[in-house]
Amino acid sequence: MSHASYELKAETRERVGKGSSRELRRNGLIPAVIYGDKQAPLSIALSTKEVTMKIHAGGFMTTVATIDVNGEKIRVLPKDYQLDPVRDFTMHVDFLRVSKDSQVTVAVPVHFENEEKSPGLKAGGVLNIVRHDVELNVSANDIPEFLTVDLSGLKVGDAVHISNIKLPKGATPVITDRDFTVATIVAPAGGVKEEAEGEAEA
After folding, report:
1. Do 76 and 6 form a contact (C-beta atoms < 8 A)?
2. C-alpha 193, offset from chain centre
3. d(CA 145, CA 82)
4. pLDDT tens digit string along 147-176?
5. Nearest alpha-carbon partner for 69 in 6, 9, 24
6. How many whole angstroms separate alpha carbon 182 and alpha carbon 33?
7. pLDDT, tens digit, for every residue of 102-135?
């Protein structure tokens, strides 16, 4: 389950530096760099509007894209981007070159489901998310859009560890030295409901 790949058109940048970046942005373009795969980094310019739309659509960091640089098609995975903190538009993107055999490290978002089937949450417990995403080593061709945690049957005090989550074939967590916690169900500050009912009868 992953986002469909997409293609972006780009041009190479001859001049690199603050002045040229400002000039690019005035023309509706943003500077980006493609690096990796034992090749020299390639400085390119992309449409600000197209890239910002892709970032807002979600799954940007987990979707392999093709960048057409003057007719050469390069498969890439976004590794990092900067947004202008004031005006919320993209300032810069780093892309990693990938081939179909590339192993990449990606932070994959965690989705939680079946809250209504968790006795702990029904009793007023709170889902405490320790990790909103998990870093995985995966094949560039098999990047999951998200990981799913099933909360069915979990009580207050229960924890979800990485070993409880079904990972896609060939994916391994970057952290391997411990079975780390992804979420816990904790008692709310006021205690859970059942205890409160006992007091009401007195």
Report:
1. no
2. 36
3. 21
4. 999 999 999 999 999 999 999 888 999 999
5. 9
6. 33
7. 899 999 999 999 999 999 999 999 999 999 999 9
